[in-house]
Amino acid sequence: MSPLKTLFLNPPSYEGFDGGAGSRYQARREIRSFWYPTWLAQPAAMVPGSRLIDAPARGLTLEDLLPIAGDYELAVLHTSTPSFRSDARVAEAFRDANPRLRIGFVGAHVAVSPEASLRASDAIEFVAREEFDYTIQEIAQGRPLESVDGISYRAGDRIVHNRPRAIVENMDALPFVTDVYARDLVIEDYFIGYLLHPYVSLYTGRGCRSRCTFCLWPQTVGGHRYRTRSPQSVFEEIALGRSSFPQVKEFFFDDDTFTDDLPRAEAIARLLSRLSVTWSCNAKPNVPYESLKVLKDNGLRLLLVGYETGSQQILNNIRKGTRIDIARRFTEDCHRLGITIHGTFIMGLPGETRETIESTIAFAREINPHTIQVSLAAPYPGTELFRQAQEQGWLGREAEALVGEDGIQISAITYPHLTAGEISAALERFYRRFYFRPTKVAEMAAEMLTSREMMKRRLREGIEFFRFLSGREARA
Ligand code: SF4
């Protein structure tokens, strides 16, 4: 039996919204950015004849998409907490355009709240919990819903919750996502400010050993065991990716923490050196010098590093499992080896005070990553941070409002000693005090002089960044 004609859709929502099919924290960013919809590309690679559409990255609206609703028998929409209401409206419009279309939702939001999600819109027939690759493959193969593990579905007025889906253990059994990228995506659509353009990102493993209380994926879909593909399988996919996309300047390994298994990371790096590719990955600020050197010597360009804060007490509060002194040494090692760092920080985590905000800004200026990203603490349902915020009464009136009407992050947490407004203002101050320093301005200007392309790109991003800052000021 041939599979159902299946559409995988990252739905249109806010203008420029970087949604959850590849983005950990779904929001419109300071500068136009999109991660690849890798979570959707994976099941799309397992359903022959399917199509993946990433509407925000392509700039497609609901009106653009509705004419194709009649071409499909099954639509799988990736949703997130900030975009859920809008995604449900897209599902309803698709159902109205094609009443025979079966519609399912996937993503951490429905994994955490399956019942409420199904009750929110009768256009949604089922939601997939846990990892959903094989779940969707079975539904597309026409299996009756009652026999599919890992879903909750509508049966008349009742909501039925099937038994959980087993976690994927054999990661090498999953087909390459880059085949779907080549088939369905325009890779030039994908911009991330600190990555070379065009880039391609993929996961070589799922799950993270750390237990950071705010972090969404390991607490909802990925778990705390780092399940990995073999170095040989990673090598083969990158070799294929290089021939499919000769224009690509950089590959990014978007595993939660690629450096969680250092012997494996080093083995992959050594294999990749045969391909002479440039690559980058996520890391915690605790990788020893010897390993950094092996990675750098074999093509590593940039590390995306979650520092989160300059306060050891806050690191302890959020169970980050890192130390400020080790993060300092790690950063010095990266500078010495010529590894670029994009550092990420969060304002408003438990324990934040006016003093810790200032010490985090001072810490970031001192260790001086090449670029930074500052986010607001986002209590996603399903995380320890959400439970804590609920118990302590830190949530605002709309507990799940993580972004404003423009899709930009808003502070959902407010403390008796530090208001949501102060936390938001700290984000803007952080950016200004980090970037508007003579040394940083000179560094950025020097980078712009490396090529015309970089000049154009940084100018565009600079304009977007100023608009973002002034937009925040106007809203404050
Ligand atoms: S180390 Fe990073 S990916 Fe892992 S739980 Fe912490 S924030 Fe999440």
Care to describe what's here?
This protein is of the alpha/beta class and 476 residues long. It contains 19 helices and 15 strands. The strands form 3 sheets. The protein has a 7-stranded mixed sheet with strand order 2-1-3-4-5-6-7, with helices on both faces. Helix 1 links the parallel strand 1 and strand 2. Helix 10 runs parallel beside helix 11. The longest helix has 24 residues. The radius of gyration is 22 Å and the shape is globular. The protein starts with 5 loop residues before the first strand and ends with a helix.
TL;DR of this structure?
With 476 residues, the chain is of the alpha/beta class. Helix content is 40%, strand content 15%.
Give the fraction of residues assigned to helices.
40-55%
Strand content: 5-15%
Overall average pLDDT: 92
Main sheet makeup: 7 strands, mixed
Bound molecules: iron/sulfur cluster
Ranges where pLDDT stays below 50 over 5 or more residues in a row are none
Strand order of the largest sheet: 2-1-3-4-5-6-7
Q: Count the E strands.
A: 15
| C-alpha end-to-end distance | 57 Å
Tell me the quaternary state.
single chain
Radius of gyration: 22 Å
- Tally of helical segments: 19
What descriptive keywords fit this protein?
476 residues, alpha/beta, six-stranded parallel beta sheet, binds iron/sulfur cluster
List the helices and strands and how they pair.
Elements: E1 6-10, H1 38-44, E2 51-54, H2 55-58, H3 62-65, E3 74-78, H4 84-97, E4 102-106, H5 108-112, H6 114-120, E5 126-128, H7 133-140, E6 151-155, E7 158-161, H8 178-184, E8 199-202, E9 205-206, H9 216-222, E10 227-228, H10 231-244, E11 250-253, H11 262-272, E12 279-283, H12 289-297, E13 300-308, H13 312-317, H14 324-337, E14 340-347, H15 354-367, E15 371-376, H16 384-392, H17 420-435, H18 438-448, H19 452-475
Parallel strand pairs: 1-2, 1-3, 3-4, 4-5, 8-11, 11-12, 12-13, 13-14, 14-15
Antiparallel strand pairs: 5-6, 6-7, 9-10
Helix pairs in contact: 1-7, 10-11, 11-12, 12-14, 15-17
The chain binds iron/sulfur cluster (SF4).
